[in-house]
Amino acid sequence: MAKALALLLFLLPALAQGALSPLKDHPLARQAQALLQAAAKALEAQASPLALNVQGNYARLGYECTPPSLCQSLPATGGSLTLALVLTPFPFGDVQDSLERARIAYRRAELGYRKVLTALQTQAVAAYGRYQLALLGEKVAQKGVELAQAALEAARKRQANPKELREAELALKEAENRLLEAQRNVELARKGAEGLVDLTKPLPEIPPPQGTTPLSLEEARLSLEEARIAHMSALRTLFPEVKASYLLYPSGNDTLALSLSSRTLQPTLAYTRQDPAQRPTSLPGVGSYRTLEEMRLSFSLTLSPGLFAALEAAEAQVRGAEEALKAAERQARLQEETLNNSLKTLRTSLELARLRLEAQERTLAETKKRLELGLESPLALLQAELSLAQAELALAQAESDLRTKWMELYQFYGELLPEVTP
Predict the structure, then answer these.
(1) The CATH number of the domain where 92 resides is what?
(2) What total number of domains does the chain contain?
(3) Which are the contacts of 333, defined by CB distance < 8 A and separation ≥ 6?
(4) Domain range for residue 152?
(5) Span 89-119, pLDDT tens digits
C-alpha cells in the first residue's frame, strides 16, 4: 500500500494545482486510482509471509454392538479442531507464480493509471486550446462585423448604386451570422472543457517529455513475462510432487504435525485436538501399544497427453509473446519517428505564424500613421485590425497544434506533465 501511495504522490503533483487541477477529481482518474489501490492490496495479500488456517468437524456416531450392552460405553459424538500455521519464508513454485502474477497485475494497473491520466491530460490541453481558439475566433468575427458595418456606411455616404448597397448589406448579414456562430463555438468549447481544465487559469508550459519506455512496449513485456510464468507452471506439472510430514502424538487427544511439499516449500505447523481420544491398539494375548511419533513421505506423479499438450501451448504462447514484443518495438520506433517529424513541421509552422503576426503588427502601425496623415481611410484601419486578429488566430492555432502533438508524445510514453509554475 505504501508503494501505491508513493506512486500516486509521484504522478499527481502536476494535477494538484493550476489549470489541470480538475483532472484529479475526474471519474476516470478516480476509477484508475481505485484499480491501482486494489492491485496493490492484492499484491500485499500474495506477499504475506504467513497464513492461519482453522478446520473443525463434528460427527454423530451410531453402532451395532455384540453384545448390545457394549454400545452404552461408546461415545455418541465425535469432533476435532485443527489450527494450522502456513509459513512462506521465501516464494517458490506455485507460490512464486502467484506472487509474480500479482506483481504483473499491479504493474498493469499502474500502466492503466498512467494511460488514463495521460489521455485525460491530452483531452484537457486540447479543450483549453479549443476554448482559446474559439475566443480568438469570436474576436475575428467581431472585427469582421465592424468592418462590414463600416463598409456599408461608406457605401451609403458615397451614395453607391443599389447593387453595391445590397452586397454591402449581405456582407454585414453574413458577418453577423459568423459572429453568432463564433459565440456558440465559445459556449460549446467552455462546456467541453468542464471537468477537464480550469479555463480561468493559464495552462502550464509543456516541456519536452523525458522519453522513457513507451507504454506499448511495457505492456508487451508484461505479456511476455506472463507467458513465461505460465510456461514454467506447465513444466512443473510434469515433475513429481513429494510431501514430507512429521507427526507427534503427545496424547490420544492431541496431534502436532510439521509438513512440507516440494511444490511450494511452505512449512505448515498444525495442532489437532480430537474427541474422543484415540485409543491404544490392543494385541490379544500380548498387550497394547500407542504411536508416539510418525514420519510420512508421499510421492505423486501425474502423466497424461493433456499435460504435454498444455506445455506445448504454453511454449507457443511464449513464442507469440516474443514476436509481439518485436512487433511492438518496431511499431514504437516508427510512431516515435513520426511524432518527432510532425513536431519539426509544426515548429516550422509556428515560426512562420509568428513572422506573419509581426508583419501584420507592423502593417497596422503603418496604417495608423498613414491615417493620421490623411493617406488612409478608417476602413483601411479596420481591415488592418482584422488581418492582425486573423494572424493572432493563426498563431494560436499553430501553438495549439504543437501542444496537441506534444501531448501525443506524452501519451505515447505515458508521462505526466511536471509541476510547472505558470
Answers:
(1) 1.20.1600.10
(2) 1
(3) none
(4) 2-49+88-239+301-413
(5) 999 999 999 999 999 999 999 999 999 999 9
